[in-house]
Amino acid sequence: MSEITGHRSTATAVVHESYSFACMRCGHGWEQSYEIEHHTDAEGAQMIMYVADGHVVPSPLTRPTCLNCDAHVVRIMRAGQVSSVQNSMHRQRTAPKAVPESNEDSVAPKEDHHWHLSDLLHPFHRKAS
Predict the structure, then answer these.
(1) What does the pLDDT read at residue 55?
(2) What is the tally of structural domains in the chain?
(3) Please, which residues have CB within 8 angstroms of residue 59's CB and are 6 or more apart in sequence?
(4) pLDDT at residue 95 above 90?
(5) Sheet of 13-23: strands edge to edge?
(6) Distance CA 18, CA 16 (A)
C-alpha cells in the first residue's frame, strides 16, 4: 500500500474493529479497538489506515508487537477474550474464602497476580471427550 498524503477526514468508509492479543513469549494480554479507514488516493488506488486512540498505527494483523516485551509472537483473538479471562480471574480473587478465626501461622495475603500465558489461554483449552 502506498502512503496517504492528506487528511484522515477523506476516508470513504470507516469500520470499527476490536481485537484481543496474547503474547506467546511473556503471556501479557491486552485488547485494542481500531478505526479502519478506507481511502482512495489520487490515482484511484485503495488504501487502508488503522487508527488507535487517535493515532495512525501499523496494521495489527501484519506483525503485532507485545506491549510488554516487544516480541512479535502474538496470538490475535476476537474481541473480549482477554477481558473475560481477567474478569473471571478477578471474581475468583474477590470471592469470599473461609479464613481461620485466629491462626497466628496464617499465610500472608497474596500479591497481585502476574499474568502468564497459561492464565490467558486456559479458558480456550478443550477437554478431550
Answers:
(1) 95
(2) 1
(3) 48, 50
(4) no
(5) 55-57, 46-52, 29-40, 13-23, 74-78
(6) 7
C-alpha cell at 47: 488504501
Q: How many residues does the chain have?
A: 129
φ and ψ at residue 20, rounded to 5 degrees:
-105, 145
Q: Which residue has cell 500465558?
A: 117
Amino acid at position 118, single letter: S
In a domain, 115, yes or no: no
Max Cα–Cα distance, the chain, nearest Å: 78
Neighbours of 86 (CB within 10 A): 17
- What range does the domain containing 8 cover? 1-82
Q: Does any domain span residue 53?
A: yes
Contact (CB, 8 A) for 36 and 65: no
For residue 123, the 8-state DSSP code is G
What is the average pLDDT value for the chain, to the nearest integer?
A: 74
Flag whether 76 is in a domain: yes
Residues 6+ apart with CB under 8 A from 49: 4, 8, 11, 36, 37, 39, 56
Q: What pLDDT is recorded for position 4?
A: 43
- Residue 88 included in any domain: no
| Contact present, 69 and 13 (Cβ < 8 Å) | no
